[in-house]
TrEMBL record:
It comes from the Archaea. Residues 449-569 form the DALR anticodon binding domain. It is an enzyme of class 6 (ligase). It is found in: Cytoplasm. This is Arginine--tRNA ligase. Residues 7-88 form the Arginyl tRNA synthetase N-terminal domain. It comes from Methanosarcina baikalica.
């Protein structure tokens, strides 16, 4: 709805600017929201500087030339200094209520757009996902959900490192140490991987065995490949379980070895050589990208002729480029250099480059994590801890309910708290996840938003029981005139623009902030305006319809954040 309001304001304003003798691009209208208007334009600043005029006088001149068509979402336009302020009409407010009730879960969805291939998580299969990994998963999954709601056809992939040095260590470890398969499979892999690294640190001569395994895999040795595959499958099986619990789903798991087997790695190395940018450095083949601003060369082949993860990643990206209109990668800050080199190398050989979302790391108050050193808290352990704490809260708040109800709500609240607390921070900012704060119902995190949705469901259920509401009855939205009602309607109307913003800028945190603000707006409305207790029957029906609208948009927001929307808490 807000996108249409902005589109109408754009059309009306550009027509008025033409009438006073000027032309302007859409991007130069400089629309923004403010406390003084639903939309404010700084176009007069731009035009005044170009044409040597007084911006305040020019703004007044433009507004005098404005014509608002009948039925417009624009109600009135005024001048405040050089700003041109637009206020929404009653038609916009009533139309928003009608649209939410009609479209329901489709409210806020954009028109069909291009295909996007989005890669996220792609953690090495040498153990379980830990807290350091799941920011990647949560940002990536939330972005995919936002992009889908914006209208894009999104395929989500996990790139499986099934043949690198770490996997050689895992394979070597599985042969050397007994796997405890009574444990979750990825945890069992981590156990032997940690033991192997201790052994390798004590006896560096064993590193030759790791190098030999890598050479055998590249040479196509069947037994070694089977050994690698078995270890990777065990780790990935456990990772999938963890991701599913986090409500993260990948459409495809792509093994990097396929690009070696297909010859794509060899082909891409030859094409890079043909550019004249490669040279030998201590026997290794490197690419000179200094004209792209990279002092450090990119190694694409070891001195023994084997490929690197980077080389196979280049082949993977070339393959991805043929699968979709856009490619998006979600990487941690430690990939900043390598992702830049990867983009530059693809540019050199004329392959479509990915858009890269770089995120800073999330940590726990306990500190940083490393699977190699065995210093990490697994995502599974974190989920158990958070869910257990959530269960204690549910038992305190709802002691009369069944254990099954408490357990179900605790899982929804616990996982929701993790997802929300991690995604609410802009990707480029580092963050510390404090699970106690994330679960605080008063701190306006996921539990607060989920509780707001449950409250809306409870109000509607109570109204049905008291025969005060029938969802099929016609309502008159124009009766919703209180400040808190209008503010809530306008906040709901902004949902499509928030989705659009998150999709354009690849910033999922904007939706997290919006969901909290929407919950605030709903709770303020309910606090100050009687709903079921409203004396006038038509007003009561309109307010209950507004509660239903809030329920719908809260549910849509939570769903797009990958968080469950409980009907009772």
């Amino acid at each position: 709805m807000f996108l249409e309001l902005k589109a109408q304001a754009t059309s009306i304003l550009k027509d008025a600017i033409r009438k006073v003798g000027f032309e302007i691009e859409d991007s130069e209208l400089y629309f923004e929201t403010s406390s003084h208007a639903d939309l404010a334009s700084r176009a007069a600043f731009k035009l005044a500087s170009l044409h040597k005029q007084n911006p305040k006088e020019l703004a007044s001149c433009i507004v005098s030339a404005l014509e608002i068509p009948d039925g417009s979402y624009i109600g009135e336009v005024s001048v405040s200094g050089p700003y041109i302020n637009f206020r929404a009409s009653r038609h916009y407010l009533d139309g928003t209520v009608a649209a939410v009730l009609e479209k329901k879960e489709k409210f806020g969805c954009g028109a069909p757009k291009d295909k996007i291939l989005l890669e996220h998580t792609s953690a090495n299969p040498n153990g379980p996902l830990h807290v350091g990994h799941i920011r990647n998963s949560i940002i990536g999954d939330t972005l995919a959900r936002i992009l889908r709601r914006a209208g894009y056809d999104v395929e989500v992939q996990y790139y499986v490192n099934d043949m690198g040095r770490q996997i050689a260590v895992v394979s070597w470890a599985c042969e050397r140490f007994e796997l405890d398969l009574s444990r979750k499979s990825d945890a069992a892999i981590a156990d032997v991987y940690i033991k192997a690294n201790v052994e390798l640190d004590k006896n560096p001569e064993y590193i030759k065995e790791i190098d030999t395994l890598m050479e055998k895999v590249e040479a196509g040795d069947v037994r070694t490949i089977d050994s690698f595959d078995k270890a990777v499958s065990l780790a990935i099986s456990g990772v999938k379980e963890t991701l599913l619990r986090l409500n993260v789903v990948h459409d495809k798991f792509v093994n990097e070895s396929r690009f070696l087997k297909s010859g794509a790695v060899h082909d891409i190395v030859e094409r890079i050589k043909a550019t004249g940018r490669t040279k030998k450095d201590k026997g290794a083949l490197v690419v000179d990208l200094s004209d792209y601003g990279f002092e450090k060369t990119l190694v694409i082949q070891r001195s023994n002729g084997t490929s690197l993860y980077t080389t196979r990643d280049l082949a993977y990206h070339e393959w991805k480029a043929g699968q979709a209109d856009r490619i998006i990668d979600v990487f941690g800050a430690d990939h900043k250099l390598i992702s830049g080199q990867l983009r530059a190398t693809l540019n050199v050989i004329g392959v479509k480059e990915p858009e890269v979302v770089i995120f800073e790391f999330v940590s726990l108050p306990e500190g940083s994590m490393s699977t190699r050193r065995g210093q990490f808290i697994s995502a599974d352990d974190l989920f158990d801890k958070v869910t257990e704490a959530a269960l204690e809260q549910v038992e305190t708040r709802r002691p009369e309910t069944s254990y099954e109800f408490k357990k179900q709500v605790a899982e929804m609240v616990g996982i929701g708290a993790v997802r929300y607390d991690i995604v609410r921070v802009s990707p480029e900012k580092s963050t510390v996840f404090n699970w106690k704060e994330a679960l605080d119902f008063e701190k306006q995190g996921a539990p607060y938003i989920q509780y707001s949705h449950a409250r809306a469901c409870s109000i509607l259920e109570k109204a049905k029981e008291e025969a005060a509401w029938d969802s099929s009855m016609e309502i008159d939205p124009s009766l919703l005139v209180e400040d808190s009602e209008i503010y809530l309607i306008k906040k709901m109307a902004m949902f499509d623009s928030i989705i659009d913003l998150g999709a354009r800028e690849l910033k999922p945190h904007v939706l997290a902030i919006y969901a909290r603000e929407l919950a605030d707006a709903f709770n303020q409305f309910y606090r100050f305006v009687p709903v079921i207790a409203a004396e006038d029957e038509k007003v009561r029906a309109a307010r209950l319809a507004l509660v239903d609208c809030a329920r719908i948009v809260l549910a849509n927001s939570l769903d797009t954040l990958g968080i469950a929307a409980p009907e009772a808490m």
